[in-house]
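This part of the workshop introduces the protein records we will be handling. An example says more than a description, so a record of this kind follows:
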Amino acid sequence: MSEQTGKSVLVVDDEPGMRMALKTNFQRNGWYVDVAGGSGEALGKLQTRHFPLVVTDVRMPDGDGLHLMSSLRASSPSTAVIVLTAFGSVPEAVQAMRGGACDYLTKPISFEELQSAVERVMKRAGVSPEKAEALAPAGGIVGTAPSLLKALERARHAARTGADVLIEAESGTGKELLARFIHENSVRHQRPFVAVNCAAVPDNLLESELFGHVRGAFTGATAFKAGKFEVAEGGTLLLDEIGEMPLHLQPKLLRALQEREFERLGDTRSIRANIRIVATTNVSLPAMVEQGNFRADLYYRLNVIPLSLPPLRDRREDIPALAEFFVRKHAQEAGRQTPLLHPLFVAGLQTHAWPGNVRELGNFIRRVVTLSDGDEIGPECLRTELLSVTRLHRLSTVVSHPAPAGTSMREVERSLLEATLQRTGGNRTRTAEMLGVSLRTIRNKIREYGLPPRRFA
C-alpha cells in the first residue's frame, strides 16, 4: 500500500540516521513515509495533510514531542502516535501517553517490535490500514508556502464553525480538495461528503440531481430518485462551479439554503436538510451579479465565509514538493520504481507559468512519467514535453493568418476561440480538443468574452 490508500506515516526525529532507518523500514512494509527533523517542521507538514500515524522522538532541539502531542490532540484526534525515547526519558514518554500517545518504545528500537506496536496502536485507534483511506483527504493538499498555509488555517477555522463556505479560486488550484479538507476537519467528518458539478449536469436535469424526484414527476421518471441534498444528510454538500447554476433554478436553491428544507420534483412534502454547503467558483460571482447572470441574494447567502486558494504561480516554492508527490503517485500507477528528479528539471518547472495550476502540473508529470523509462527525469523532458510544438501546430491549423503586430494576447485568444468555434460548428467539446484545453475552460472563456452562450451550444 501507499499514499494512495491512506497508509501514510510521519516520522519525526532530529537524528538523520534514525529518520532514514525508520523511513526505509516503513517503506519496505508498503507505507508512504514523510519525515521531519523537528517539532516545528512536523507541525508544518501536519497542517498540509492528514497522517493516520505519527512516530516521534521525545527530545528534539526545537521542541519536544510533548508539544507536538498537544497540537495533534487538538487538530487531529484520530491520528495514532507512537513515541520513541531513550531509556532515561521514560517518565517523559509516560507523560506523553497521558497526553494522548498510543504507545512508546525505548531506543535502540527493534523494527520487529516497532511493527508489532504499529499494528497494535492502529487497531486500537480504529485506523487499521484497511480503514486508513477514509481518514486521508483525497489526493492531499501539498505545500508549505505561506499563502497556502494561510488559506488552510482559515479553512480550518471555517470548518469548526459549521457555516456555509464559498471558495473562489482559479481552475486547477484544488478547490474540491479544500472543500474535502473543510469536511474532514469539521464535526461532520464521519458523515457523507457529496459533490455535484453544476457545470457537468444538463440544465434540465440539475434540479432532479439536487433535490430528487418521485415516480412520474416528468417524462422518463419511472422510479423514485434521492437527490444530493438527501444523500448528503448530516454531512457536507459541495456545489462545484456554482456560477454555472441556471438562473431559473437559483430561487429554489436559495430557499433550500435559507430554510434548510426542500421538495423533491413532483412531491409536495417538504424535507428537512441537515447539511453544510460548500460552493466553489472559478469566476467572479459579484461580476456575474452585475451582469444579471447570478442572483445577488443567492450570492450573499453563499458568501458566509469566503475562502480562496493561491494560484501555483504565486507559490512556486511548492513546485518541487508537488513534483515529487505526482512522480510517486503516477510511478505507482504505472507499476514502476519512482524515478529521481534532476535538479535542473525541477528548476525548469519553477520557471513555467502553469496557467492550469496544480492540475496542469500533475498532468504534465503524469505524461513525463508515462513516456520516460529511465531512473531519472532530466531537463531534456522540459524540451520534449513542456515546450512541445505539438499544441502550437494544432493551433496553427485553426487560424490561417497571423494577428497584426500590436494585437493584445486577449484579442488573439478571443479571435482564436471564435474561429475554432466557427470551424467546429459551435461544438464546444471538439473546440476544447482542438485547442488542447478542458471543456470547462471553453465554457468559462465563452462567458468571459461575452460570446452568445446559445450560439455555441
